[in-house]
Specification:
Two copies of one chain form a homodimer. Chain A is α+β, with helices and mostly antiparallel strands. Chain A contains eight helices and 14 strands. The radius of gyration of chain A is 21 Å and the shape is globular.
Chain lengths: ~350, ~350
């Protein structure tokens, strides 16, 4: 008997018995199978190359709607986790997966989302090695929430982080900002707007790996919740420096800019899910930019500003010569984008 | 300003901005701090001893109510994850933590639950090295869901698992079964029953580590969802053998037995959260039992049955000489116990 003879997830799919085994076998194991995934055990052995630093990260996903132009919660789960490792300079190797499924959720939708997750994992070169599913009663979940932990390795001796940042460093971004936030917003029924915006949802691993051997790379981060403005605010607080961004240098797609103007959003606070912000010695920035521009995910990369001494603030220089401060985000105009 | 000047979690606590930073600093980082937890970065470096096999596991937690006699979702999250590693023969070293918090959740309750999680982690000798929080809108969550991934190490060459199980092996359980399931049930308002049952919620690491050097240890598992009956069903299916359990040998506390009789539950299907089922060579079983009985969590350990050849079934021999089959669980009488 196939699990798809039922149409919807029931509480019995979460009870540790036959229905749960079928759910795991016919959906999760089918799409995520690899030599290290053994659904008959609660813990998996993993192999890590010797002499490397082991890195780990974890991320939860509650995006609404679950599917949007350019992605879905499944691929987002992989990319969000992979990207946190990638910007730390690591190569992601393994993922674990937690699914919180709401009673009544459509089994075919679940199947499609986990298939997408499996595809994204294979493309990013990571293996799902352990998983857990829980079913919550109707009205106690948003269809599907996912959590994922990533394990990867990076070269010993690699120095990346806030303490490495120096006055005079250049700030780069790997592509246009805000696509993900606006794509998710337009996919919501409560906004009666149409627009041709696709999420930038993608693994940034090729972009981060390409810069690792450059001398002068000091810091990388993916601008997700809170966008470019929040990453820059973290940097100025952590590095006790000031950031000056040139507004005209920051890539923002036309349709994203238009939606922001209509709805009053600020693109600098919108989430990306496939972009990298890098901070590096100014004399290495041009080479980094050329490397990124030659990669598929980096065509529109740009040098957008610099780290200067001064009070820890993020200052945006407008094209007409004005200045405004990008304050730390307080109230979120756009929740549940990841 | 303290986060506790607000009383409830708002969507702004999940937006990547100042409120989220305060939530993480004043609750999560305060209770979970350790040298390897750095809330200023998205990925953490961890140190693993050389020459060991790295093991990983993951688990989600949706228990209702969030606090019950003998535990809460915080300590349960640590013990559930630690125990999955422990029964694989590993020593847990690191945890990652995902929290899905419902808008409107009481911040003081959250504080108490994360404090409990931190205490359980310290007692089990594990460090929380990475975390993520998401806030879901009111009506889209059950107050608090947690997910945790554990990373640990075990000796190379250790052979534990279903393929090791042999006909003639003895089956041991480390203590009374069903305490957790009944404790959670009695804590629910929809059951108007009172009883002095505490969850067995605990780390089983001392119990599992104590058996690792015994020759003849073949398999360990913690009987959580689906209880002893489900663990035995997994074994007979995986090992292509039969299990015979002696009902009178299986420890079940009096109050647990009483509640089961009143409500028609079968204790063999009730979840434990601090017990181990071990399968080992019969001639090593007495020594293992003596070792367990000398440990705080193993006072009431017992040899409860054996693995025999025959059709893969779990057979319970009743005290009066009868037999019944413990079938694989289909419909769950008691959801959301972990």
């Amino acid at each position: 008997m196939s699990i798809f003879e039922d149409r919807f997830v029931t509480l019995a799919h979460g009870n540790g018995g036959r229905y749960m085994r079928e759910l795991i076998t016919e959906i999760f194991a089918r799409h995520l199978h690899n030599p290290e995934l053994d659904i008959g055990t609660d813990a998996a052995a993993i192999t890590l190359p010797e002499g490397m630093v082991v890195m780990t990260t974890t991320d939860g996903f509650i995006v609404q709607p679950l599917e949007f132009p350019g992605g879905d919660i499944g691929s987002l789960c992989v990319h969000g986790t992979v990207n946190d490792l990638a910007v730390s300079g690591a190569k992601p190797l393994y993922l674990t997966l937690n699914a919180f499924i709401e009673e009544g959720f459509d089994l075919r939708t679940l199947d499609r989302l986990i298939q997408s997750l499996g595809k994204a994992a294979r493309e990013a070169g990571v293996r799902v090695v352990a998983g857990d599913t829980k079913v919550v009663p109707r009205g106690h979940g948003g269809g599907l929430y996912l959590a994922s932990t990533g394990i990867g390795v990076r070269k010993a001796g690699l120095k990346l982080g806030l303490p490495q940042i120096q006055t005079g460093d250049a700030i780069l971004v790997s592509g246009p900002i805000g696509d993900h936030g606006i794509a998710v917003l337009l996919a919501r029924e409560d906004f009666d707007l149409k627009g041709d915006v696709h999420s930038d949802n993608a693994s940034v691993l090729p972009l981060t790996q390409a810069l690792l051997d450059l001398p002068g790379l000091h810091f990388m981060r993916d601008p997700t919740r809170g966008g470019l403005a929040m990453v820059c605010n973290e940097i100025v607080q952590g590095a006790k420096a000031q950031i000056r961004l040139r507004e005209e240098a920051i890539p923002v797609r036309g349709p994203v800019r238009s939606v922001c103007e209509i709805l009053g959003y600020d693109p600098f606070y919108l989430a990306c899910e496939g972009r990298v912000v890098a901070i590096m010695k100014a004399n290495a920035a041009k080479e980094a930019l050329a490397i990124w521009k030659a990669l598929p995910g980096g065509k529109n990369a740009a040098i957008i500003g610099e780290v200067v001494s001064g009070r820890p603030r993020v200052i945006l220089q407008t094209p007409i010569g004005g200045e405004r401060t990008l304050e730390e985000l307080e109230d979120d105009p756009l929740p549940r984008i990841c």
